[in-house]
Amino acid sequence: MGGGIIFINRFEEKELLNEILNSHKKEVFILYGRRRVGKSALLKEVSKNKRTLFYTARKISKAEQLNSFSRSVGKFLNLGNIKFENWEDVFRILFNFSEKESIIIILDEFQYLAEKNEEIISVLQILLDEFDDSKIKLILCGSSISFMEGILSYKNPLYGRKTGSLKLNPIPFEHLKLFIPEYDFHQLIETYSIIGGIPYYLTLWDGNTNLYSNIENLFLKLGAPLKEEPYFILYQELREPGIYQSILEALASGKNKINEITSFIGENDSRKIQPYLKSLINLKLIKRITPALLKNPHRTKNFLYLIDDQLFRFWYRYIFPYKESVDLNEYENVLKLIEKDLPQYVSFEFEKQSVNYLKKRFNLVEAGNYWKKDIEIDMLGKGKEGEIYAAEIKWRNKKMNIKDFYNLKNKVEKLQLNVDYFILVSKSGFEENLFEIDENVYFVEFSKEKGWQDWQR
């Protein structure tokens, strides 16, 4: 399977956490990020061979949670099967011990611990203030992004007491080769468009077999590990998952405007679905986008919603609409549909990764898609000196030609944009006559063997 090790390329994160865990003072560190991103595995890696209490909270009653944590503390401190009466007692004994010896306390899925036991955060605040000489290393880790970011807010009792925080993000595309070294760069962009940079999904991907065999094994076969994954995440994170399902289905079918989404799910008032959209944005499952380089993007009515998570985008486009057939193990036609449609599907991810690359390559302070009425530009960007870049990006199995350039130039002229530099990005190279154009044009190829590379005139 793909790299198989979940902390490939987590070098900076490991270094940061090792500094926290090896310090000679009290530490309070907050680690958070979406499910499956590798938080628990990272913490287990950096805390191994250290005196650590690693407790994973669950969705259980207050009494069960306290009893469960008490048993873990009793085992950790060699106190036997001890039962504490309240949260202050159980944490106080840990803080008392931490004055003599440096210990690591990792509270994983912290939202399940604190949501039903609101006093926990206040208890921790009191003890952190009281025990000045403590050598405790307290790590609070959670998958509920909104809850964990709330801990970081000014109004939270723990505000000002943390010594560090980190939001663990998915693996960026440029590091995917470390996970699946067997694949060329075209195969990697195809894979990334399906499962993104979530380490758990990457460890399931088999680099010794082709793309469609992986899709069959991971999404379609009986017992496939990712067949129900979006269901699992939605039911874990959200109430009323049915409404969220309908919103995601609308977006996957190309209904990207607020009125289109509202109509699709059978509502008349778009204000009623705003809280649901906000929740999906907080979970990083969807995003709201506006045309690039707008002066007041928050005030514009020209915006779209898109599915931002690759696995959700793939699943709602190809699995959810045909779920009945897939569940009956009759998925041959679904796989044929995916094979036929995938190049167009991958082109959206290629465009997204191209924009990310161009932003770094040309030191752009802003960059993104641009659209106005029926005209679209793949990328419009602004440099540090105010210079404007426009790009045409093609994921297709033939070279870009002079027609592609003039298509981009004509769109720019119709929109009356003052563009200083043009960029052509191609999966398959460029025809020779393109290099004869007397314009400021950059050529970038995304080759199978080397990935991104500049072409010289």
Q: What's the CATH H-level superfamily name of the largest domain?
A: Winged helix-like DNA-binding domain superfamily/Winged helix DNA-binding domain
Termini distance?
41 Å
Q: How many E strands? A: 13
- Strand arrangement within the widest β-sheet reads 8-9-10-11-12-13
Query: Which term fits the overall shape?
Result: globular
CA radius of gyration: 25 Å
Structural class: alpha/beta
Output the CATH topology of the largest domain.
Arc Repressor Mutant, subunit A
Uncertain stretches: 1-6
User: Mean pLDDT, nearest integer?
Assistant: 92
Strand content: 15-25%
Main sheet: strands, sense, barrel: 6 strands, mixed
Number of DSSP helical runs: 18
CATH-level-2 architecture of the largest domain: Orthogonal Bundle
| CATH level-1 class of the largest domain | Mainly Alpha
How many structural domains in the coordinates? Answer: 3
Helix content: 40-55%
GO molecular function: ATP binding
Pfam family, one: DUF234
Organism: Thermosipho melanesiensis (strain DSM 12029 / CIP 104789 / BI429)
Protein name: ATPase
Supply the key terms.
457 residues; alpha/beta; Rossmann fold; 3 domains; six-stranded mixed sheet; five-stranded parallel sheet; ATP binding; Restrct_endonuc-II-like; ATPase; DUF234
Description:
This is ATPase. Residues 315-400 form the DUF234 domain. Residues 7-203 form the ATPase domain. There is one protein chain. The protein is built from 18 helices and 13 strands. The protein is α/β, with parallel strands linked by helices and 457 residues long. α1 (11-21) packs across α2 and α8 crosses α17 (332-361). It is globular and about 80 Å long. The two termini are 41 Å apart. Mean pLDDT is 92; it is low at 1-6.
